[in-house]
Write a structure and sequence with these properties.
Blueprint (H helix, E strand, L loop, with lengths): L6 H5 L5 E5 L5 E7 L5 E7 L6 E2 L10 E3 L5 E6 L8 E6 L5 E3 L8 E5 L7 E6 L8 E6 L5 E5 L5 E6 L5 E7 L5 E5 L8 E5 L6 E6 L5 E6 L7 E6 L5 E5 L6 E6 L6 E6 L5 E4 L5 H8 L5 E7 L5 E8 L2 E9 L4 E7 L11 E8 L5 E8 L8 E7 L13 H8 L3 E6 L8 H5 L8 H15 L3 E11 L1 H12 L6 E5 L5 H7 L7 H7 L9 H7 L12 E6 L7 H13 L4 E6 L9 H19 L16 E6 L4
Parallel strand pairs: 30-31, 30-32, 32-33, 33-34, 34-35
Antiparallel strand pairs: 1-2, 2-3, 3-4, 5-6, 6-7, 7-8, 9-10, 10-11, 11-12, 13-14, 14-15, 15-16, 17-18, 18-19, 19-20, 21-22, 22-23, 24-25, 25-26, 26-27, 28-29, 29-31, 35-36
Length: 629
């Protein structure tokens, strides 16, 4: 095997990431760590080396964007993981950073911008009622915020046209379906454009340039999600892009012409369907630049320059500046250049059959230098669960593969990407068929000779954390150990504790179960690992952020107490300054140091020792429970 890769190399911050062009094409921005290892926004003039840091946050900035005035950079930030995100504006001319949404306890869900209104943004905020997201209009020059559109109580998505007027919404119906409403202008009444049944899906994603057509992701009339354009007045619909067996994933829309240029589908590796002939030559040329999966990350107002990102599951992300006229690319940077000198694990798409015959997709990583035979296996379960894994660089996967483990990432039923039948086959199947799909993934790896049946672990974040505890409780003989990061163990308490802006109760009632309905009591009891804690016989590593808005401390502490009562073994790590997930570099390093040591103890892989009781700078508070003597 290749040498042990230091955690600092794999898990440290990217050297630079997320490059974006200013709309005027004069500057380029990116995220990079400051001297304190916090990711900040940096800006430089294109063609020069005048890079400067323009933000000063205590916690790393995760995403940002340019306003259309080319002088303002916008980013969202919460308070130590509480998910009450505020919108901040960096004025590059003055250097001032201003909180545009300064209300305590208020969360910005998202923002909307338009090239025709460069000095304004729309922000979706719960100022008026913490349970409801309304739309506010904010002047970037003065910071003045004006109430714009009131949420009637069921709207969960707002869409503005090119004039920055909100003219479409998606609402959730009581039966867990969707309703799309539209209006002609800001003075017109709302009317229903379409509705779906509970097993359908629709999402408005924008208007065309004249505002007559609404662009949608829609499963109406199909099992899979297609990209469609629906004329608002007549209701006539045109299918823009579709693929058998797969949902449309990324949709590339021109930000000034508002036409759909390309749509990505993800069977295993990304496949682009080019819609606009005007970009066909660009895509043909770009495909030859690199063997990774690419996306257009940014462009200038005149559409002459693009930033192209190539991602790979076993290497750093490479970023290019693409000149459309010359059909020429200049490399900007790799986000983690140290990785390009290392031998990382290849990751390949796989398929297997669940016990009921349903086809499942996923990804398998085999440690570099090892044959895929009789290896210790880590089953890494994605969160959501209504998300999916992709062929992209995964820090956990590469760390674990370098330590000697095969890593399997299944897109079990309930995952997005493979049609409505696959998605809704997970309805009310937490701890049941969804968990069976994970068991069947392990059995596939064993039957293929890849995995040693005596050396298997299950790990995951969020839903994946739940699945790890469920695996320990419901299939106690399958795994040697389990690792739960920010997972829940009691579906009753979890659903009831959701904050107002997260608890889409119609969704959870339909897809998981209603904790307030006596008819669902048996279902939720059987799906909650807390009620089967006496069956847990394997060691658990459990970690949580103290400020987690989705999974409360009581979720982890319930299962730790139950394991202790039943004479089991668990290590519980609480990070006092984290939310749903571990984002601070020192905490991330601390947690994964514990992960690799824990797995080495129980599966026999390699690990890099941790100096001291915790990584320097980490906020970890550790409690260990073991069998009673």
């Amino acid at each position: 095997m290749p040498p042990l890769i230091p955690r600092e190399v794999l898990l440290g911050n990217p050297e630079r990431s997320q490059p974006m062009l200013s709309p005027d094409g004069m500057r380029i921005s990116y995220l990079a760590p400051d001297e304190g290892d916090v990711l900040q926004v940096w800006v430089r003039t294109l063609g020069k080396s005048d890079d400067r840091c323009v933000s000063a946050e205590r916690r790393s900035i995760q995403t940002y964007e340019w306003a259309w005035d080319s002088n303002t950079v916008l980013y969202r930030q919460d308070n130590e993981g509480d998910e009450n995100f505020h919108v901040y504006a960096i004025d590059l001319e003055t250097g001032n950073v201003r909180d545009l949404t300064p209300w305590n306890g208020v969360r910005c869900q998202n923002t909307m911008t338009s090239s025709k209104r460069p000095a304004e943004i729309l922000a979706v905020l719960n100022v008026r009622d913490r349970r409801l997201m309304d739309v506010w209009r904010i002047d970037l020059r003065t910071g003045a915020a004006t109430f714009d559109v009131e949420n009637p109580g069921d709207v969960e998505r707002w869409v503005a046209d090119d004039d920055l007027v909100v003219r479409a919404v998606r609402a959730r119906t009581p039966d867990d379906g969707f309703e799309v409403r539209v209006r002609t202008d800001s003075a017109s009444p709302w009317r229903t454009l379409l509705r779906t049944a509970p097993d359908g899906w629709v999402l408005p994603i924008g208007f065309n340039q004249d505002g007559r057509d609404l662009l949608l992701l829609s499963s109406l009339g199909s099992d899979t999600i297609r990209v469609v354009a629906r004329e608002i007045e007549s209701g006539s619909e045109n299918v823009v892009a579709a693929m058998d067996g797969l949902d449309a994933d990324r949709v590339m829309i021109n930000p000034t012409r508002h036409v759909i240029e390309a749509v990505a589908f993800e069977p295993g590796r990304r496949q682009w369907s080019v819609i606009d002939p005007g970009i066909a030559a660009d895509f043909d040329a770009i495909r030859s630049l690199d063997d990774g999966d690419f996306r257009i990350a940014s462009r200038d107002f005149d559409d002459r320059k693009w930033i192209v990102e190539f991602q790979g599951a076993h290497r750093s992300t490479k970023c290019f500046l693409w000149d459309r006229a010359a059909k020429k690319a200049d490399i900007l940077f790799s986000d983690r250049p140290e990785l390009d000198q290392l031998q990382l694990a290849e990751v390949r798409p796989i398929k297997y059959r669940a016990r009921d015959g349903m086809e499942m997709h996923g990804y398998l990583a085999i440690p570099a230098g090892l044959e895929p035979r009789n290896l210790p296996l880590v089953l890494n379960v994605h969160g959501g669960p209504w998300l999916r894994d992709y062929w992209t660089f995964n820090l956990w996967t590469q760390l674990l593969a370098n330590r000697g483990y095969a890593v399997l990432q299944p897109n079990f039923r309930g995952s997005m990407g493979y049609g409505m039948k696959h998605l809704h086959a997970g309805d009310r199947q937490w701890g049941r068929a969804m968990q069976d799909d994970l068991t069947d993934a392990v059995r596939w790896a064993v039957d293929e000779g890849i995995a040693d049946r005596e050396r298997i672990a299950i790990i995951g974040l969020s839903y994946g954390g739940y699945a790890a505890v469920a695996g320990a409780a419901f299939t106690p003989d399958l795994y040697k150990c389990a690792i739960d990061l920010c997972g829940n163990c009691n579906l009753f308490t979890m659903i009831r504790s959701f904050p107002a802006h997260i608890a889409m109760r119609a969704l959870w009632n339909a897809r998981v179960g209603n904790p307030d309905d006596p008819a669902d009591e048996e279902l939720l009891t059987n799906a909650s690992p807390i009620f089967a804690a006496d069956r847990i016989r394997i060691p658990l590593l459990i970690a949580l952020g103290a400020n987690d808005a989705r999974v409360k401390q009581s979720e982890s502490e319930q299962i730790v107490a139950a394991i202790e009562k039943n004479g089991g073994t668990a290590t519980y790590v609480l990070y006092s300054d984290e939310g749903h997930g571990i984002t601070r570099p020192a905490n991330r390093m601390d947690f994964l140091a514990r992960v690799e040591r824990f797995l080495a103890e129980h599966l026999g892989g390699r690990y890099e020792p941790m100096d001291g009781e915790r990584i320097a700078g980490s906020s970890a508070i550790v409690r260990v429970v073991g069998p009673k003597r």
